[in-house]
Design a protein that fits this description.
Elements (H helix, E strand, L loop, with lengths): L5 E2 L9 H6 L22 H14 L3 H14 L4 H13 L3 H14 L4 H13 L3 H10 L6 H15 L12 H13 L3 H13 L3 E2 H13 L3 H14 L4 H16 L3 H4 L10 H18 L3 H14 L4 H12 L4 H9 L8 H14 L3 H15 L2 H13 L3 H14 L10 H13 L3 H14 L4 H14 L3 H14 L4 H13 L3 H14 L4 H13 L3 H13 L8 H9 L13
Parallel strand pairs: 1-2
Helix pairs in contact: 2-3, 3-4, 4-5, 4-16, 5-6, 6-7, 6-8, 7-8, 8-9, 8-15, 9-10, 9-11, 9-15, 10-11, 11-12, 12-13, 15-16, 15-17, 16-17, 17-18, 18-19, 19-20, 20-21, 21-22, 21-23, 22-23, 23-24, 24-25, 25-26, 25-27, 26-27, 27-28, 28-29, 29-30, 30-31
Length: 581
C-alpha cells in the first residue's frame, strides 16, 4: 500500500548543520536568546564595535551586528576573520550584493571557504550570468556543505543555460526533486516523472516528500499515481485543507485530461526562470535546517532565497517563524508585512502579525490591525482573533462582543462547521463570565462538528463536573479525551476531578496523583489532590498539597478557600464547591 512508504520524518538529513557551525552560525538557540546587552555597550573604537557586534549577533539582531562589524572592518580591512563574519552577517540581513563582495575579497586569503563561492554563484545567477556562475562553481572546493549545495546550483545553472545536467545529483529527495523541477521547467516531463519516481523508490519518505512527488506526477499528467499519494498522506493529515484542494484539483484534471487545476495549487510548477528555481532550492535548504532548529543557518538560506526572489512568500513566512522563536517579534512582523496582499497567505499572515504585536506588548496596535483587516477585507477570522486577544487578557465582556459580532456576520443562530472554533472560544468566554447556559450551548454545538477534539471534550466535561451536573456524561466525555491525550496533565486532572465529584475517591486518587506528577507546579491540580487526600482520611498529605497550591498560585488563583481548608480542614469549610459532592 502507498502508506507503507510514509514516515513522520525523512531518513535523509542534510549534512550542513556542522558546516554552518564551523563558519560561525551556531545550530543552538542558547546564544541567540541572550539578552540584548550590546545595547549598553559604547561602540567606539575597534574593541567596542567588535564587542557590540558579537553581542548583537548572539541576540539575533544581525542588522545591528552587521553595522557594528562594518565599523570594525573599516579599521582592519584585510582581516580575513572579520571579512568572513561580515559576509555571513550581510547575507543574514538579505544583502546578497554586499555578501558577494565580501566573498570575493575573502577567497583571496581563504580559497577553501565554500560559503563564499556559494554567495558569488548566487550573485551571478541573480544577474542571469549563468556562464560566470558555472565558472564560479567549477572553482568551489570539495567538502562540507559545498558537496551538498553545489549539485543543486549546478542543475539550475545548467537550466539557465538551456540544458538539463543531473549528473552530479545525489541519491536524496531534495536533489532528485530539483532535478525533476528543472526537467519540468525545461519541458522534459518524462524525465521529471522519472526523477520524482526515484524518490519513492529510495525507501521510507516523509509526508512532505510524498506530497512533492505527487505534485510532480500530477502536473506531468500522472493523475492516478498522484492521487494515490495525496490520498495516502490525507489519511494521516485529514485536516490539511490544501491537500484536500489538491485531491479535488487532480480529480477535475483527470476528467478533462489536463493539468491546469493542479498547477494553480503547486507554486513550484510555475517557476518562471532558473533564478527562481535556485531560490526554491535555497528555500528548501532553509526549510530542512528550520526543522532541525538550526535557526542561524535557516536565516542565511531564507535570505538567499529572498535575495533571488523577493516575492517568495514561503521563504518570508519561514523567516518570520524563525525570528519569532528567537524573540525577534518586530523583525518577524516586518517580514509578514511585506507579503503581497494578493497571496492566499496574506490574511493569515497579518493575523499572526497582530498576535505577535500583542505578544510584544502592543495590544492596542494588535487590535487596530485586526479591526483594519475586518474593515478592509471583511475578515471574520480577524474578529475572532480580537475576541481571542481579549479573552487572553481575561476581558471576557469585550471578548464576547467580538465573538458575537463575528457570529452575526456568519448569520447569527447557526454557525457553519468551518467556524466551529468560534463556538469553542465563545463557550469558554461565556463560562469565564459566569454564563454557563450560554457556554454549554456553544460547547455542545462545537462538539457536534468536532466530536473527537480532546480539549473540547475536556472543557465541556470539566465544566459539567464543576457545576456538579451531568456527572456520568461528564465522565464519559473526559474518558474519551484521556484516550486521545493520555499524557496531558490537565485532562488527567479533569478525570480525577469528575470522579471526585462523583464520590469515587479511590478511583480519583491515582489520576490526580498522575496529574500532579505531570504538572507539579499547577496550583489547581495540587488543590484537587489535597481534596481527595482529605476525603480518604490522609489529612497531613492533604494539607501538604494545599500548601503547595497556595505557594504555586502566583496571584493567579483565588486562594482564600484553600487557606480556609488549611486552617479548618474540609469539614470546616461550608458552602464550598470543593466540599460539595
Amino acid at each position: 500500500m502507498v502508506m507503507s512508504i510514509f514516515s513522520k520524518k525523512s531518513l535523509f538529513v542534510v549534512p550542513v548543520i556542522a558546516a554552518m557551525t564551523a563558519i560561525g552560525c551556531s545550530a543552538s538557540n542558547a546564544e541567540q536568546n541572550a539578552p540584548l546587552v550590546y545595547q549598553d555597550i559604547e561602540p567606539t573604537g575597534f574593541a567596542g564595535s567588535y564587542l557590540a557586534s558579537h553581542h548583537a549577533q548572539n541576540s539575533y539582531d544581525w542588522k545591528a551586528a552587521s553595522g557594528f562589524l562594518d565599523q570594525v572592518l573599516a579599521l582592519d580591512p584585510e582581516n580575513a576573520e572579520l571579512i568572513r563574519r561580515s559576509m555571513i552577517l550581510a547575507i543574514g540581513t538579505g544583502d546578497l550584493e554586499l555578501a558577494a563582495k565580501r566573498a570575493q575579497t575573502l577567497i583571496v586569503t581563504d580559497p577553501t571557504n565554500d560559503l563564499a563561492y556559494i554567495l558569488m554563484t548566487l550573485e551571478n545567477i541573480k544577474g542571469e550570468e549563468f556562464d560566470a556562475a558555472s565558472e564560479t562553481l567549477a572553482q568551489m572546493p570539495e567538502g562540507d556543505m559545498g558537496d551538498f549545495i553545489k549539485p543543486l546550483l549546478t542543475v539550475w545553472v545548467s537550466a539557465g543555460q538551456g540544458a538539463l545536467d543531473t549528473t552530479s545529483l545525489q541519491e536524496n529527495s531534495i536533489h532528485r526533486y530539483h532535478g525533476a523541477l528543472a526537467a519540468f521547467y525545461l519541458g522534459d516531463f518524462e524525465k521529471a516523472k522519472a526523477l520524482a519516481t526515484e524518490i519513492l523508490a529510495s525507501g521510507t519518505i516523509s509526508n512532505h516528500d510524498a506530497v512533492r512527488v505527487a505534485d510532480i506526477l500530477a502536473v506531468t499528467g500522472a493523475h492516478k499515481d498522484a492521487l494515490a499519494l495525496y490520498e495516502g498522506v490525507m489519511v494521516q493529515d485529514n485536516e490539511n485543507n490544501i491537500l484536500a484542494e489538491k485531491i479535488a484539483a487532480v480529480k477535475a484534471d483527470q476528467e478533462k485530461d489536463t493539468n491546469e487545476a493542479i498547477k494553480a495549487l503547486v507554486p513550484d510548477a510555475n517557476i518562471e526562470s532558473a533564478v527562481k528555481g535556485t531560490a526554491v532550492a535555497m528555500y528548501d535548504m532553509a526549510y530542512i535546517l528550520h526543522r532541525e532548529y538550526s535557526d542561524s543557518s535557516t536565516k542565511l538560506f531564507a535570505n538567499m532565497a529572498l535575495a533571488l526572489d523577493g516575492h517568495m512568500t514561503s521563504a518570508r513566512l519561514l523567516l518570520a517563524d524563525t525570528l519569532t522563536r528567537n524573540g525577534r517579534y518586530k523583525d518577524a512582523i516586518t517580514q509578514l508585512a511585506d507579503i503581497d496582499p494578493s497571496h492566499p497567505s496574506y490574511l493569515p499572515a497579518q493575523r499572526h502579525a497582530a498576535e505577535l504585536m500583542a505578544e510584544a506588548g502592543d495590544l492596542d496596535g494588535a487590535l487596530a490591525k485586526l479591526n483594519t483587516l475586518f474593515t478592509q477585507y471583511n475578515d471574520i477570522e480577524a474578529l475572532i482573533r480580537i475576541g481571542d486577544l481579549y479573552r487572553q487578557e481575561e476581558n471576557f465582556k469585550n471578548a464576547l462582543t467580538a465573538y458575537n459580532k463575528a457570529a452575526k456576520q456568519l448569520g447569527g443562530d447557526t454557525i457553519p462547521a468551518e467556524y466551529w472554533h468560534l463556538l469553542y472560544a465563545r463557550g469558554m468566554a461565556y463560562e469565564r463570565e459566569g454564563k454557563w447556559n450560554n457556554a454549554e450551548a456553544d460547547l455542545k454545538a462545537a462538539l457536534v462538528y468536532q466530536p473527537n477534539h480532546p480539549y473540547l471534550l475536556n472543557y465541556l466535561g470539566y465544566g459539567w463536573a464543576d457545576q456538579g451536573m451531568n456527572l456520568q456524561e461528564s465522565l464519559e466525555l473526559i474518558k474519551r479525551a484521556v484516550a486521545l491525550r493520555p499524557y496531558d496533565g490537565y485532562i488527567i486532572d479533569s478525570l480525577g476531578w469528575v470522579q471526585y465529584r462523583m464520590g469515587l475517591y479511590d478511583e480519583a486518587l491515582p489520576n490526580l496523583e498522575k496529574a500532579v506528577s505531570l504538572l507539579p507546579y499547577d496550583s489547581t491540580i495540587n488543590d484537587h489532590l489535597g481534596d481527595v487526600y482529605w476525603q480518604l482520611g490522609r489529612h497531613t498529605e492533604a494539607r501538604f498539597q494545599w500548601e503547595r497550591a497556595v505557594n504555586y498560585s502566583e496571584g493567579e488563583t483565588d486562594i482564600s478557600l484553600i487557606e480556609q481548608k488549611l486552617k479548618f480542614g474540609m469539614d470546616g469549610v461550608k458552602n464550598s464547591k470543593q466540599a460539595s459532592k
